[in-house]
Structure formats: structure tokens, C-alpha cells
Amino acid sequence: CPRAREMQPPAPPYEVLPTEVKMEDMPRSTTVTVEETPPPPRDHLPWSFFTTLYGNFCCLGLLAFIFSIKSRDRKVLGDYSGARSYGSTAKYLNIAALVINTIIVIIIITVVAVLASRVPPSYSQPPYYGGNH
């Protein structure tokens, strides 16, 4: 069929071997290219979960948890770009919540320490008047 010949790609160019060289004497090699798949992006779900439970200042932990779930969903669907974006947002929300909660704890400890140092000591024993009563 002449039309089938037109649709076939042309044969690659080749060199004719000299008559003194035999194909069996030629070196043979095989090249295998192995591509490493990039590791899947992190979704920070456990970190977001604990931030939601223990450090949910202004709902930052809850927002981080939601973005972590979205990141995991994107990862399952194979959308690594979307998963990386949501995971990055969850990470930054977790960091912000951690920093704010750490500052709040430091302020509370400082205020309690200052207030405790100003309270006069209380006497648990009645005063001693000296003498036999």
C-alpha cells in the first residue's frame, strides 16, 4: 500500500561496516536511565493536629490542620505542586502558632513570678509570746 509507506517514519541513517569487521567482534552495551522520583511533599498533619489541640491561638492550629488535610488530599491525587503549596502554608501556620504560644507562656510565667514576689509571706504559726501559758 503506497499510503502506508508515506506514513512510516524514514529509517535512521547507518554506516555500512567494512568487510573485515564482523558484528560479533563489536562491543555491546546497554544504557538504562533510571530517574529518581522526588519524595512526596510533606503535609505536616501530626504537627497540625497537636497544634490544634495544644496551641490553637486565634485558630491558627485549626487553619494549619485544614491546610494539612488539603495537602494530603492533593498528594493522594498526585498533584504534588498543590500538595507542596498547601503543606508549606500549613508549616508556616504551625510555626506562627508555636511562636505566639511560646511568647504567651513566657509572659504568663513572668507575670506569675512578679506577682508571687510581691506577696508578703504568710505566717502559718501563731506568734510566740514567750512564757508559759
TrEMBL record:
Q: Which InterPro entries match?
A: CD225/Dispanin_fam (IPR007593), IFITM_antiviral_protein (IPR051517)
> What Pfam families does this protein's entry cite?
CD225
Keyword Transmembrane applies: yes
- Could you list the residue ranges that cross the membrane? 47-69, 90-116
- Per the record, GO CC terms? plasma membrane
Keywords in alphabetical order: Membrane, Transmembrane, Transmembrane helix
Q: Which subcellular locations apply to this protein?
A: Membrane
Q: Which PANTHER family match?
A: IFITM1-RELATED, INTERFERON INDUCIBLE TRANSMEMBRANE PROTEIN
Similarity-based family:
Belongs to the CD225/Dispanin family.
Q: Know the name of this protein?
A: IFM2 protein
Taxonomy of origin reads: Eukaryota, Metazoa, Chordata, Craniata, Vertebrata
Question: Gene name?
Answer: Ifitm2
